[in-house]
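Researcher: Following up on the earlier apo prediction. This time include the ligand. It's adenosine-5'-triphosphate, with the SMILES given after the sequence.
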Amino acid sequence: MSSEAYVAGLDVGTTKIRTVVARPEADGRLRVLGVGVVPAAGLARGIVVDRGQAIAAIAESVHRARRNASLEIGGAYVGISGAHIACRNVTGRIHIPSGEISAHDVEKVIQSARDNVRTSPEQEIMHVLVRDFAVDGEPGVARPVGMKASRLDVEVHVVTGVGSVIANLEDCVRETGVIPLKNVLEPLATATAVLSEAERDLGVILIDIGGGTTDVAVFSEGSICHTASIPVAGNHVTRDLAQLLRINPEEAETAKRRFGVALAELTTPDEMIQVVELGTEKPTRVPRRLLSEIIQPRMEEILNLVKENLLLANVYERVGGGVVLSGGGSQLVGCTRLASMILDNLPVRLGAPRNLTGLADSVSSPIFSTAVGLAMLAAADQAWAMPPSKPAGPASWWQAVKTWWRSRVLPEIKRLAQGA
Ligand SMILES: Nc1ncnc2c1ncn2[C@@H]1O[C@H](COP(=O)(O)OP(=O)(O)OP(=O)(O)O)[C@@H](O)[C@H]1O
Ligand SMILES: [Mg+2]
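Model: Understood. Below is the ligand-bound prediction.
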């Protein structure tokens, strides 16, 4: 790996578009070199709804990161989310006539699992993630290559998405001059940035409460076993506040961030806050507890929807490592406590990106988990962001002439001048 190589992650969220440029360090950390954040436009719950607006917003986010890092961005890992995503666990099996498992056999068994995926015509496969191999019926094998066997089984987690939805987002990214090097399911990227290996081994639920969607990923015995995207998140909380307090959405967003509490019992009845009522310029005083009494039911709804989804998928029991919350919606005071109450007293913590250096402070919040995770995955795959080098033009031709002059011609002239 060149020490100059760098990667980029592009999180096209419902509320913000975040670009992170970073360089992998020899010690395994990621050096953050540049960050670009702009309000999202033209997108709703992971879907492009206004192409022109989406392109302009993505271009601006990329431009800011590029300027911040003083580096060109030719390609990036792009996050994909939304209700069009579906997941399932599928198995594959092959026989091993040679009696010893080769790397080719491993590819073949994964392909056989892939062939067993039944998708509707509009769906395409985004990820095939290996959960477990079984050698002659014995499960729990991490690396089967080189083992003696007559049969190899695999269990994979398959993530699919609607092809046209993905193609539309890819197209917007390409229009900005950035090549989408890989589309990554957002909770997978978030998990990369915030979860520890111990949590994945013990079993953990990751809940990313964004603006338009709440994304869920469940890991058990070190690998992913469930993913889901629930179309209710932080923006619904803001909308509730705007409607019930009769204030404009910007005012509701500010009030939520400054005074919002997810658990009403954490406020005192006499604490008052100021908001400006719709149609008047006059500030009015409302109890902070009223704010949290509006927020709490919506947050409970989100967390109950997550719980129902996990119960339905039969993965709720597998989580000894507890729950990790991420995304902007998780920043409400009392959110971890409310989550623990709804999720049967499981331990809950807030997850922010880890193992960073450089401009680490500018991405240390849970709202950057997805963008940082995308950059980490790109670094792991050595999927570099540098643009392809330009074909030799007049400038590089002149450079070549100068180099040739200095290295060959000039020494020869000096030699002749010295009469050698
Ligand atoms: N300090 C805060 N307190 C409460 N809520 C917050 C805070 N900061 C951000 N939010 C909320 O978080 C949500 C945005 O979160 P985030 O930036 O993770 O979403 P996104 O990635 O743009 O959207 P999505 O993941 O749904 O596509 C908004 O609803 C916003 O109001
Ligand atoms: Mg997000």
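Model: The radius of gyration is 26 Å.
Researcher: Noted. I'll compare it with the apo version next.
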